Request: fold
Amino acid sequence: MERLSKATLPGADGVALPPAGWDAQRTGIVHMGIGAFHRAHQAVYTQDAFAATGDDRWGICGVTQRSDSVRRQLTGQDGLYGVLERAVDHTGVRVVGQVREVLFPAEQNAGLMARIADPGTLIITLTVTEKGYRRDGAGHLDLADPAVAADLVGGEPTSAVGRLVRGLQARQRAGAEPVTVVCCDNLTGNGRVLERLVGDFCAALGDEDLTDWIASRVSFPCTMVDRITPATTDADRAMGQELLGLRDEGLVTAELFKQWVIEDDFVTERPAWERAGVQLTDDVEPFENMKLRILNGAHSTLAYAGALRGYPTITRTMADPELAELAGGLINEDVTPVLECPPGEDLAAYGAEVLKRFSNPALAHRTTQIAMDGSQKIPLRLLGTIRDNLAAGRNPQYAIAGVAAWMAYVATPEAGGLVLPLDDPIADRLAVVRGSKNARGIVEALMGIEEVFGADLPDNGPVRDQLVDDVGGLLARA
Ligand code: CS2
Reply:
Protein backbone atom coordinates (compact mmCIF):
# COMPACT_ATOMS: atom_id res chain seq x y z
CA MET A 1 0.00 0.00 0.00
CA GLU A 2 1.23 3.52 -0.82
CA ARG A 3 2.37 5.77 1.99
CA LEU A 4 0.82 9.09 3.05
CA SER A 5 2.72 12.04 1.54
CA LYS A 6 2.12 15.29 -0.28
CA ALA A 7 1.85 13.44 -3.56
CA THR A 8 -0.61 10.86 -2.32
CA LEU A 9 -2.66 13.12 -0.01
CA PRO A 10 -6.07 11.49 -0.02
CA GLY A 11 -9.49 12.94 -0.44
CA ALA A 12 -11.52 10.08 0.95
CA ASP A 13 -14.75 10.49 2.93
CA GLY A 14 -14.21 11.02 6.64
CA VAL A 15 -10.71 12.44 6.04
CA ALA A 16 -10.09 16.13 6.76
CA LEU A 17 -7.12 17.58 4.88
CA PRO A 18 -4.71 20.31 5.98
CA PRO A 19 -5.55 23.80 4.71
CA ALA A 20 -4.09 24.89 1.37
CA GLY A 21 -0.59 26.27 1.73
CA TRP A 22 0.25 23.98 4.67
CA ASP A 23 3.56 23.01 3.12
CA ALA A 24 4.71 26.58 2.45
CA GLN A 25 4.49 27.73 6.07
CA ARG A 26 7.50 29.21 7.79
CA THR A 27 8.74 27.84 11.09
CA GLY A 28 7.73 29.97 14.07
CA ILE A 29 7.41 27.35 16.81
CA VAL A 30 9.99 24.91 18.16
CA HIS A 31 8.35 22.05 20.04
CA MET A 32 10.48 19.95 22.38
CA GLY A 33 9.18 16.41 22.93
CA ILE A 34 7.29 15.57 19.77
CA GLY A 35 5.32 12.54 20.92
CA ALA A 36 1.74 11.54 20.20
CA PHE A 37 0.27 14.12 22.59
CA HIS A 38 1.77 17.15 20.86
CA ARG A 39 0.74 15.85 17.46
CA ALA A 40 -2.86 15.31 18.63
CA HIS A 41 -3.10 18.55 20.60
CA GLN A 42 -1.00 21.70 20.08
CA ALA A 43 -0.24 20.86 16.43
CA VAL A 44 -3.97 20.45 15.70
CA TYR A 45 -4.85 23.75 17.38
CA THR A 46 -2.07 25.50 15.47
CA GLN A 47 -3.24 24.05 12.16
CA ASP A 48 -6.81 25.17 12.95
CA ALA A 49 -5.55 28.69 13.68
CA PHE A 50 -3.74 28.66 10.31
CA ALA A 51 -6.95 27.51 8.62
CA ALA A 52 -8.88 30.34 10.28
CA THR A 53 -6.41 33.14 9.56
CA GLY A 54 -4.04 32.13 6.76
CA ASP A 55 -1.17 33.41 8.96
CA ASP A 56 1.66 31.22 7.72
CA ARG A 57 4.35 32.01 10.28
CA TRP A 58 3.60 29.17 12.66
CA GLY A 59 4.91 25.98 11.16
CA ILE A 60 6.36 23.70 13.86
CA CYS A 61 9.87 22.33 14.20
CA GLY A 62 9.39 19.18 16.31
CA VAL A 63 12.28 18.00 18.44
CA THR A 64 12.50 14.37 19.52
CA GLN A 65 13.93 13.48 22.89
CA ARG A 66 15.59 10.10 22.95
CA SER A 67 14.99 8.35 19.65
CA ASP A 68 14.71 9.30 16.02
CA SER A 69 11.51 7.32 15.42
CA VAL A 70 9.21 10.34 14.94
CA ARG A 71 11.74 11.86 12.55
CA ARG A 72 11.73 8.66 10.54
CA GLN A 73 7.93 8.46 10.63
CA LEU A 74 7.32 12.02 9.49
CA THR A 75 10.16 12.86 7.14
CA GLY A 76 9.13 10.00 4.85
CA GLN A 77 5.67 11.59 4.64
CA ASP A 78 6.52 15.28 4.03
CA GLY A 79 5.70 15.88 7.70
CA LEU A 80 2.11 14.68 7.27
CA TYR A 81 0.36 12.36 9.71
CA GLY A 82 -3.20 11.46 10.59
CA VAL A 83 -5.01 11.99 13.88
CA LEU A 84 -7.52 9.16 14.20
CA GLU A 85 -10.38 10.61 16.23
CA ARG A 86 -12.46 8.00 18.00
CA ALA A 87 -15.71 8.39 19.88
CA VAL A 88 -18.81 6.24 20.34
CA ASP A 89 -20.55 7.77 17.36
CA HIS A 90 -17.64 9.14 15.36
CA THR A 91 -14.55 7.82 13.66
CA GLY A 92 -12.57 10.08 11.39
CA VAL A 93 -9.05 11.06 10.40
CA ARG A 94 -7.67 14.57 10.26
CA VAL A 95 -4.45 14.91 8.32
CA VAL A 96 -2.07 17.38 9.96
CA GLY A 97 0.66 19.17 8.01
CA GLN A 98 1.70 21.68 10.65
CA VAL A 99 4.98 19.97 11.60
CA ARG A 100 7.37 21.26 8.98
CA GLU A 101 10.60 19.80 10.31
CA VAL A 102 11.69 17.19 12.85
CA LEU A 103 15.07 17.33 14.56
CA PHE A 104 16.76 14.50 16.43
CA PRO A 105 19.17 16.40 18.68
CA ALA A 106 21.51 13.47 19.27
CA GLU A 107 22.47 13.94 15.61
CA GLN A 108 21.33 17.50 14.96
CA ASN A 109 22.19 19.51 18.03
CA ALA A 110 23.66 22.37 16.01
CA GLY A 111 20.45 22.49 13.96
CA LEU A 112 18.38 22.72 17.13
CA MET A 113 20.49 25.52 18.58
CA ALA A 114 20.26 27.42 15.28
CA ARG A 115 16.50 26.91 15.16
CA ILE A 116 16.02 28.32 18.67
CA ALA A 117 18.31 31.24 17.81
CA ASP A 118 16.50 31.95 14.53
CA PRO A 119 14.61 35.28 14.57
CA GLY A 120 11.63 33.56 12.92
CA THR A 121 11.20 31.36 16.00
CA LEU A 122 8.93 33.22 18.40
CA ILE A 123 7.55 30.40 20.53
CA ILE A 124 9.06 27.31 22.15
CA THR A 125 6.59 24.73 23.46
CA LEU A 126 7.40 21.64 25.53
CA THR A 127 5.84 18.25 26.35
CA VAL A 128 8.67 16.28 27.90
CA THR A 129 6.60 14.50 30.64
CA GLU A 130 6.79 15.12 34.38
CA LYS A 131 10.09 13.32 34.82
CA GLY A 132 11.68 15.11 31.88
CA TYR A 133 12.15 18.24 34.02
CA ARG A 134 14.53 16.45 36.39
CA ARG A 135 13.44 18.22 39.56
CA ASP A 136 14.66 17.48 43.04
CA GLY A 137 12.36 16.98 46.04
CA ALA A 138 12.13 20.74 46.61
CA GLY A 139 11.08 21.45 43.03
CA HIS A 140 14.46 22.81 41.95
CA LEU A 141 16.60 21.51 39.13
CA ASP A 142 18.34 18.34 40.30
CA LEU A 143 21.95 19.39 39.85
CA ALA A 144 23.06 15.90 40.88
CA ASP A 145 21.22 14.34 37.94
CA PRO A 146 23.96 13.04 35.62
CA ALA A 147 22.41 14.52 32.46
CA VAL A 148 21.94 17.94 34.08
CA ALA A 149 25.44 17.87 35.55
CA ALA A 150 26.92 17.01 32.15
CA ASP A 151 24.87 19.74 30.44
CA LEU A 152 26.25 22.30 32.88
CA VAL A 153 29.80 21.35 32.01
CA GLY A 154 29.28 21.89 28.28
CA GLY A 155 29.20 19.82 25.14
CA GLU A 156 25.96 18.84 23.49
CA PRO A 157 23.10 19.01 25.99
CA THR A 158 20.82 16.01 26.47
CA SER A 159 18.34 17.10 29.16
CA ALA A 160 15.25 19.13 28.25
CA VAL A 161 16.20 22.09 30.44
CA GLY A 162 19.82 21.89 29.26
CA ARG A 163 18.76 21.99 25.61
CA LEU A 164 16.36 24.83 26.24
CA VAL A 165 18.86 27.00 28.12
CA ARG A 166 21.71 26.29 25.68
CA GLY A 167 19.31 27.24 22.88
CA LEU A 168 18.35 30.46 24.67
CA GLN A 169 22.03 31.21 25.15
CA ALA A 170 22.56 30.78 21.40
CA ARG A 171 19.61 33.13 20.80
CA GLN A 172 21.02 35.73 23.16
CA ARG A 173 24.41 35.55 21.42
CA ALA A 174 22.77 35.86 18.01
CA GLY A 175 21.08 39.05 19.22
CA ALA A 176 17.62 37.71 18.42
CA GLU A 177 14.39 39.11 19.76
CA PRO A 178 12.27 37.85 22.67
CA VAL A 179 10.75 34.39 22.76
CA THR A 180 7.80 32.90 24.67
CA VAL A 181 8.32 29.47 26.27
CA VAL A 182 5.10 27.52 26.75
CA CYS A 183 5.24 24.47 29.02
CA CYS A 184 2.47 21.99 28.11
CA ASP A 185 3.06 19.26 30.69
CA ASN A 186 0.70 18.20 33.47
CA LEU A 187 2.35 20.09 36.32
CA THR A 188 0.76 22.60 38.69
CA GLY A 189 1.97 26.07 37.70
CA ASN A 190 3.88 24.51 34.82
CA GLY A 191 5.16 27.82 33.45
CA ARG A 192 6.44 28.92 36.87
CA VAL A 193 8.05 25.51 37.38
CA LEU A 194 9.93 25.71 34.10
CA GLU A 195 10.96 29.33 34.67
CA ARG A 196 12.46 28.32 38.00
CA LEU A 197 14.35 25.37 36.50
CA VAL A 198 15.74 27.58 33.75
CA GLY A 199 16.80 30.06 36.45
CA ASP A 200 18.48 27.25 38.41
CA PHE A 201 20.41 26.15 35.32
CA CYS A 202 21.58 29.70 34.57
CA ALA A 203 22.58 30.25 38.21
CA ALA A 204 24.57 27.02 38.19
CA LEU A 205 26.27 28.17 34.99
CA GLY A 206 27.06 31.45 36.72
CA ASP A 207 25.95 33.32 33.60
CA GLU A 208 24.39 36.53 34.91
CA ASP A 209 24.05 38.12 31.48
CA LEU A 210 21.96 35.19 30.36
CA THR A 211 19.86 35.35 33.54
CA ASP A 212 19.19 39.06 32.90
CA TRP A 213 18.50 38.49 29.21
CA ILE A 214 15.95 35.77 30.03
CA ALA A 215 14.31 37.93 32.72
CA SER A 216 13.77 40.76 30.26
CA ARG A 217 13.05 38.87 27.04
CA VAL A 218 11.46 35.51 27.80
CA SER A 219 8.07 34.75 29.32
CA PHE A 220 6.78 31.42 30.60
CA PRO A 221 2.96 31.34 30.49
CA CYS A 222 1.21 28.55 32.38
CA THR A 223 -1.12 26.25 30.48
CA MET A 224 -3.67 23.52 31.00
CA VAL A 225 -3.66 20.90 28.24
CA ASP A 226 -6.12 18.08 27.79
CA ARG A 227 -6.79 15.37 25.25
CA ILE A 228 -6.74 11.64 25.90
CA THR A 229 -4.17 10.24 23.48
CA PRO A 230 -3.48 6.54 24.07
CA ALA A 231 -0.56 4.80 22.40
CA THR A 232 -1.61 3.84 18.85
CA THR A 233 -2.59 0.18 18.55
CA ASP A 234 -2.45 -2.16 15.55
CA ALA A 235 -6.25 -1.93 15.34
CA ASP A 236 -5.98 1.88 15.15
CA ARG A 237 -3.39 1.58 12.40
CA ALA A 238 -5.63 -0.78 10.43
CA MET A 239 -8.55 1.61 10.80
CA GLY A 240 -6.44 4.62 9.82
CA GLN A 241 -5.21 2.76 6.76
CA GLU A 242 -8.74 1.89 5.76
CA LEU A 243 -9.97 5.46 6.11
CA LEU A 244 -6.95 7.05 4.43
CA GLY A 245 -6.46 4.38 1.78
CA LEU A 246 -2.77 4.86 2.60
CA ARG A 247 -0.16 3.65 5.06
CA ASP A 248 0.56 6.23 7.74
CA GLU A 249 3.58 5.52 9.94
CA GLY A 250 2.95 8.64 12.03
CA LEU A 251 -0.70 7.98 12.90
CA VAL A 252 -1.82 9.04 16.39
CA THR A 253 -5.12 8.20 18.10
CA ALA A 254 -7.21 10.50 20.28
CA GLU A 255 -10.65 11.17 21.60
CA LEU A 256 -12.69 13.99 20.02
CA PHE A 257 -12.56 16.18 23.14
CA LYS A 258 -9.70 18.61 23.52
CA GLN A 259 -9.02 21.65 25.68
CA TRP A 260 -6.17 24.15 25.95
CA VAL A 261 -6.14 27.03 28.40
CA ILE A 262 -3.17 29.41 28.18
CA GLU A 263 -2.13 32.26 30.43
CA ASP A 264 -2.11 35.39 28.29
CA ASP A 265 1.51 36.28 28.99
CA PHE A 266 3.28 36.42 25.63
CA VAL A 267 6.32 38.62 24.94
CA THR A 268 6.00 37.78 21.24
CA GLU A 269 3.30 37.47 18.65
CA ARG A 270 1.52 34.11 18.61
CA PRO A 271 -0.88 32.15 16.41
CA ALA A 272 -4.51 33.26 16.77
CA TRP A 273 -5.12 30.11 18.82
CA GLU A 274 -8.34 31.60 20.21
CA ARG A 275 -9.75 31.21 16.69
CA ALA A 276 -9.19 27.48 17.12
CA GLY A 277 -10.96 27.26 20.48
CA VAL A 278 -8.05 27.91 22.87
CA GLN A 279 -9.04 29.79 26.04
CA LEU A 280 -6.68 32.64 26.95
CA THR A 281 -6.95 33.79 30.54
CA ASP A 282 -5.12 35.73 33.25
CA ASP A 283 -5.09 32.86 35.70
CA VAL A 284 -4.65 29.26 34.58
CA GLU A 285 -4.12 27.73 38.00
CA PRO A 286 -7.76 26.90 38.77
CA PHE A 287 -8.04 25.20 35.35
CA GLU A 288 -4.84 23.23 35.96
CA ASN A 289 -5.98 22.08 39.38
CA MET A 290 -9.38 21.09 38.04
CA LYS A 291 -7.82 19.01 35.31
CA LEU A 292 -4.98 17.50 37.35
CA ARG A 293 -7.11 16.58 40.36
CA ILE A 294 -10.32 15.52 38.62
CA LEU A 295 -9.15 13.98 35.35
CA ASN A 296 -5.61 12.91 36.09
CA GLY A 297 -6.35 12.02 39.73
CA ALA A 298 -9.18 9.72 38.69
CA HIS A 299 -7.17 8.42 35.73
CA SER A 300 -4.25 7.31 37.91
CA THR A 301 -6.60 5.84 40.53
CA LEU A 302 -8.42 3.82 37.88
CA ALA A 303 -5.17 2.75 36.23
CA TYR A 304 -3.70 1.27 39.43
CA ALA A 305 -6.95 -0.18 40.75
CA GLY A 306 -7.88 -1.58 37.33
CA ALA A 307 -4.45 -3.09 36.67
CA LEU A 308 -4.63 -4.81 40.09
CA ARG A 309 -7.77 -6.57 38.89
CA GLY A 310 -6.06 -7.58 35.67
CA TYR A 311 -7.90 -5.06 33.49
CA PRO A 312 -5.83 -3.99 30.51
CA THR A 313 -7.68 -0.74 29.71
CA ILE A 314 -9.43 2.19 31.38
CA THR A 315 -12.65 1.41 29.53
CA ARG A 316 -12.63 -2.11 30.99
CA THR A 317 -11.91 -0.66 34.43
CA MET A 318 -14.85 1.74 34.15
CA ALA A 319 -17.11 -1.22 33.34
CA ASP A 320 -16.44 -2.55 36.86
CA PRO A 321 -19.13 -0.83 38.99
CA GLU A 322 -16.96 -0.78 42.13
CA LEU A 323 -14.13 0.98 40.36
CA ALA A 324 -16.42 3.40 38.50
CA GLU A 325 -17.81 4.26 41.92
CA LEU A 326 -14.32 4.77 43.30
CA ALA A 327 -13.58 7.29 40.53
CA GLY A 328 -16.93 9.01 41.00
CA GLY A 329 -16.45 9.14 44.77
CA LEU A 330 -12.99 10.62 44.37
CA ILE A 331 -14.26 13.35 42.05
CA ASN A 332 -17.49 14.21 43.86
CA GLU A 333 -16.69 13.55 47.52
CA ASP A 334 -13.02 14.42 47.80
CA VAL A 335 -11.87 16.63 44.92
CA THR A 336 -14.66 19.06 44.08
CA PRO A 337 -15.61 20.07 47.65
CA VAL A 338 -12.13 21.57 48.17
CA LEU A 339 -11.51 22.83 44.63
CA GLU A 340 -11.75 26.39 43.35
CA CYS A 341 -14.06 26.47 40.33
CA PRO A 342 -12.47 28.17 37.30
CA PRO A 343 -14.53 30.91 35.67
CA GLY A 344 -17.06 29.56 33.18
CA GLU A 345 -16.68 25.94 34.35
CA ASP A 346 -19.12 23.74 36.25
CA LEU A 347 -17.21 21.20 38.35
CA ALA A 348 -20.04 18.66 38.57
CA ALA A 349 -20.56 18.72 34.80
CA TYR A 350 -16.82 18.58 34.20
CA GLY A 351 -16.49 15.55 36.48
CA ALA A 352 -19.39 13.75 34.81
CA GLU A 353 -17.92 14.43 31.38
CA VAL A 354 -14.53 13.07 32.47
CA LEU A 355 -16.11 9.80 33.59
CA LYS A 356 -17.90 9.56 30.26
CA ARG A 357 -14.65 10.15 28.41
CA PHE A 358 -12.98 7.34 30.40
CA SER A 359 -15.74 4.96 29.31
CA ASN A 360 -15.20 5.71 25.60
CA PRO A 361 -15.32 2.17 24.15
CA ALA A 362 -13.44 3.23 21.02
CA LEU A 363 -10.22 3.94 22.95
CA ALA A 364 -7.92 1.23 24.26
CA HIS A 365 -5.98 3.26 26.81
CA ARG A 366 -3.79 0.81 28.67
CA THR A 367 -3.85 0.97 32.46
CA THR A 368 -0.14 0.18 32.55
CA GLN A 369 0.62 3.15 30.26
CA ILE A 370 -1.04 5.57 32.70
CA ALA A 371 0.54 3.72 35.64
CA MET A 372 4.04 4.80 34.51
CA ASP A 373 5.98 7.33 36.59
CA GLY A 374 3.64 7.17 39.58
CA SER A 375 6.17 8.77 41.94
CA GLN A 376 6.03 11.88 39.75
CA LYS A 377 2.27 11.89 39.26
CA ILE A 378 0.80 10.97 42.67
CA PRO A 379 1.82 14.19 44.45
CA LEU A 380 0.17 16.42 41.84
CA ARG A 381 -2.87 14.27 41.19
CA LEU A 382 -3.86 12.97 44.64
CA LEU A 383 -1.79 14.34 47.51
CA GLY A 384 -2.97 17.95 47.07
CA THR A 385 -6.54 16.72 47.41
CA ILE A 386 -5.61 14.78 50.55
CA ARG A 387 -3.87 17.77 52.13
CA ASP A 388 -6.68 20.21 51.33
CA ASN A 389 -9.27 17.83 52.79
CA LEU A 390 -7.26 17.28 55.96
CA ALA A 391 -6.90 21.05 56.37
CA ALA A 392 -10.68 21.36 56.05
CA GLY A 393 -11.21 18.65 58.66
CA ARG A 394 -12.51 16.17 56.07
CA ASN A 395 -11.55 12.55 55.51
CA PRO A 396 -10.48 12.04 51.86
CA GLN A 397 -11.13 8.29 51.81
CA TYR A 398 -11.27 7.95 48.01
CA ALA A 399 -8.06 9.88 47.40
CA ILE A 400 -6.36 7.75 50.06
CA ALA A 401 -7.73 4.66 48.28
CA GLY A 402 -6.14 5.97 45.08
CA VAL A 403 -2.73 6.30 46.74
CA ALA A 404 -3.19 2.82 48.26
CA ALA A 405 -3.85 1.46 44.76
CA TRP A 406 -0.54 2.94 43.62
CA MET A 407 1.26 1.35 46.59
CA ALA A 408 -0.33 -2.05 45.98
CA TYR A 409 0.54 -1.78 42.28
CA VAL A 410 4.16 -1.06 43.14
CA ALA A 411 4.22 -4.18 45.32
CA THR A 412 2.50 -6.46 42.80
CA PRO A 413 4.40 -7.80 39.77
CA GLU A 414 1.43 -9.50 38.15
CA ALA A 415 -2.35 -9.59 38.64
CA GLY A 416 -4.99 -11.65 36.88
CA GLY A 417 -2.57 -12.51 34.09
CA LEU A 418 -1.59 -8.86 33.53
CA VAL A 419 2.07 -7.96 34.04
CA LEU A 420 2.38 -4.75 36.10
CA PRO A 421 5.66 -3.12 35.05
CA LEU A 422 7.41 -0.83 37.50
CA ASP A 423 8.33 1.95 35.12
CA ASP A 424 9.41 4.92 37.21
CA PRO A 425 12.46 7.18 37.53
CA ILE A 426 12.89 5.96 41.13
CA ALA A 427 12.02 2.34 40.31
CA ASP A 428 15.14 1.11 42.14
CA ARG A 429 13.92 2.66 45.39
CA LEU A 430 10.32 1.50 44.91
CA ALA A 431 11.48 -2.03 44.12
CA VAL A 432 12.24 -2.74 47.81
CA VAL A 433 8.54 -3.51 48.33
CA ARG A 434 8.08 -5.47 45.10
CA GLY A 435 6.53 -8.84 45.88
CA SER A 436 5.88 -8.00 49.55
CA LYS A 437 2.51 -8.90 51.08
CA ASN A 438 3.11 -6.94 54.27
CA ALA A 439 0.75 -3.97 53.97
CA ARG A 440 2.19 -2.00 56.88
CA GLY A 441 5.75 -2.55 55.68
CA ILE A 442 4.82 -1.42 52.16
CA VAL A 443 3.03 1.72 53.37
CA GLU A 444 5.83 2.69 55.73
CA ALA A 445 8.57 2.17 53.16
CA LEU A 446 6.78 4.13 50.45
CA MET A 447 5.57 6.92 52.73
CA GLY A 448 9.16 7.42 53.79
CA ILE A 449 10.05 8.70 50.31
CA GLU A 450 10.11 12.38 51.09
CA GLU A 451 10.04 13.74 47.55
CA VAL A 452 6.70 11.98 47.10
CA PHE A 453 5.00 12.37 50.50
CA GLY A 454 6.79 15.37 51.96
CA ALA A 455 7.53 15.66 55.65
CA ASP A 456 3.90 16.13 56.75
CA LEU A 457 1.95 13.11 55.50
CA PRO A 458 4.08 10.31 57.00
CA ASP A 459 3.29 11.77 60.44
CA ASN A 460 -0.44 11.53 59.89
CA GLY A 461 -1.57 8.41 61.77
CA PRO A 462 -5.14 8.19 60.43
CA VAL A 463 -3.96 8.53 56.81
CA ARG A 464 -1.29 5.90 57.36
CA ASP A 465 -3.74 3.52 59.02
CA GLN A 466 -6.24 3.85 56.23
CA LEU A 467 -3.51 3.24 53.67
CA VAL A 468 -2.50 0.07 55.53
CA ASP A 469 -6.12 -1.15 55.55
CA ASP A 470 -6.64 -0.35 51.88
CA VAL A 471 -3.33 -1.84 50.72
CA GLY A 472 -4.05 -4.97 52.80
CA GLY A 473 -7.48 -5.31 51.15
CA LEU A 474 -6.04 -4.86 47.65
CA LEU A 475 -3.22 -7.36 48.19
CA ALA A 476 -5.63 -9.95 49.58
CA ARG A 477 -7.61 -9.69 46.38
CA ALA A 478 -4.86 -9.37 43.78
C1 CS2 B 1 -2.77 10.24 31.68
C2 CS2 B 1 -2.67 11.51 30.85
O1 CS2 B 1 -0.89 8.96 31.08
C3 CS2 B 1 -1.42 9.63 31.98
O2 CS2 B 1 -0.90 9.78 33.07
O3 CS2 B 1 -3.46 10.53 32.87
O4 CS2 B 1 -1.76 11.40 29.84
C4 CS2 B 1 -4.03 11.94 30.30
O5 CS2 B 1 -4.51 11.04 29.33
C5 CS2 B 1 -3.96 13.32 29.72
O6 CS2 B 1 -3.45 14.21 30.68
C6 CS2 B 1 -5.32 13.78 29.22
O7 CS2 B 1 -5.25 15.12 28.86
